[in-house]
Automatic annotation (TrEMBL):
Superkingdom of the organism of origin: Bacteria
Protein name (database record): NAD(P) transhydrogenase subunit beta
Keywords, alphabetical: Cell inner membrane, Cell membrane, Membrane, NAD, NADP, Translocase, Transmembrane, Transmembrane helix
Keyword set includes Transferase: no
Chief site of localization: membrane
GO MF annotation list: NADP binding; proton-translocating NAD(P)+ transhydrogenase activity
Function statement: The transhydrogenation between NADH and NADP is coupled to respiration and ATP hydrolysis and functions as a proton pump across the membrane.
Domain NADP transhydrogenase beta-like: start-end pairs: 8-502
Pfam family, one: PNTB
Membrane topology: Multi-pass membrane protein
UniProt family annotation: Belongs to the PNT beta subunit family.
Catalysed conversion reaction: NAD(+) + NADPH + H(+)(in) = NADH + NADP(+) + H(+)(out)
Residues annotated as transmembrane: 6-23, 35-52, 64-80, 92-109, 155-177, 193-211, 231-250, 257-277, 283-301
Amino acid sequence: MGLSVLSIIYLIGSVTFILGLKMLSKPDTARKGNLVAAAGMALAIVGTIFLYKSEGKHLHNYGWIAAGLLIGTVIGVMAAKKVKMTAMPEMVSMFNGMGGACAALISIVEFDHLLHPDFTVNVDISGDGDALGRAIGEIWAAASRAMDHDLRGHLLIILLGLIIGAVSFAGSVIAWGKLNGRIKDFAFKGQHIVNLVVMAVVLLGAVVLIWTVNGRVEAAAEHSLLSFQLLFYLVLACALIYGILFVLPIGGADMPVVISLLNSFTGVAAACGGFLYNNPVMLTGGILVGSAGTILTILMCQAMNRSLKNVLIGSFGGGAAAAAAGGGEQGSYKEISLSDAAVVMAYASKVMIVPGYGLAVAQAQHACHELEKLLEDKGVEVKYAIHPVAGRMPGHMNVLLAEADVPYEKLLEMEDANAEMPTTDAVLVLGANDVVNPAAKSDPASPIYGMPILEVENAKLVIVNKRSMKPGYAGIENELFFQPKTSMLFGDAKQVLQQLVAEIKQV
């Protein structure tokens, strides 16, 4: 009875994951979708704890399980409540890394169970050296009979979870450090070759392990358990090193793509855990996360008109080379006063707001929404132009504006926003840089050449709010700032918006 009820619970959990993911595709249902998927996960966890049975035995160590759930819940809730919007990408990256670490730990535990199954084998290892080999062979033969399946296939899933989870964990930690500025871009000559060598060691070690464990007593007897374990942990260490080297040279401008890719890695690693435990809800959740992360990664690469290979080996953003490619300042720029900017926006028919990371840094989303409502009260049509890779993670600007209760229908995707630019009287760029750089269309020498951008230069007037003329995250100069129709409005985004609101009220 318990098994049938648990199967129904797992089915419900799997359905909630699918529905939740579907609802996440639209801003107005994303929050509800997140809650639906979370409820399904909670149901699956409770069902597993109290109804799961393996070989007639229930789970035990409920105290440890409860302690782990309590500690994890407290940390998760506190982190989510206290995190600033600017630090949201870092938290997502770290939480994703914890998922990869869990998958790797599951593989380590299951590998230990593979070596030390829950059964007794009486063997005599006294005498000559061949006796030890025969004893090991008896252990492997008994393990094969106890698990009643192919050891090679079982170890393959263990190693997949170990390698992918370890790469995801180590890479996510590096991404977290790069996002918060603790870790700088680092690359050395021949690093790609070193990466390939490390990955080759990982794959070769995994092949040797799988080839050794083939379920035959004769083959297993030729290898000691100690060397087998050492090779396994060598694979783990090299996978961790590869995860570090894999992310370390990637430029800051590509971090959204890297986070998405690592998220898909974690999903695949979790799916391996579902295979190991024959747990359908864990398998479904892992596959959904892996596939969704992969699709999102591809879409983001398309949004930048770059291949995934170019992202992973291009070291784009933040380096001296990128800055040099920008060519330095391209002329003089002009500033606009707060009062002039207020008059322009108050008497415009249509205003387009382009949010960027500077808006998130200043925590200015609420002030931006106040400006939007004030302009609409004066009869101005206000919309937001959202670039797919604006900010530091996928959907960063959508989450930021949703926090300020900006209506979802006002958020335009890049293609729709670009179609309305020629009929827009004024564009207010708030902290965005690379996603509005015309060099992506006009300068073949630019590292962002070919990347689709928000074509704000097609509007009648462009007002750019920045703290300074410092280049953006890609480390290149923005030629938009020097065009005749562009005016610079320097200052902290929140303070500037509040002052704009005050000025517009007096117009």
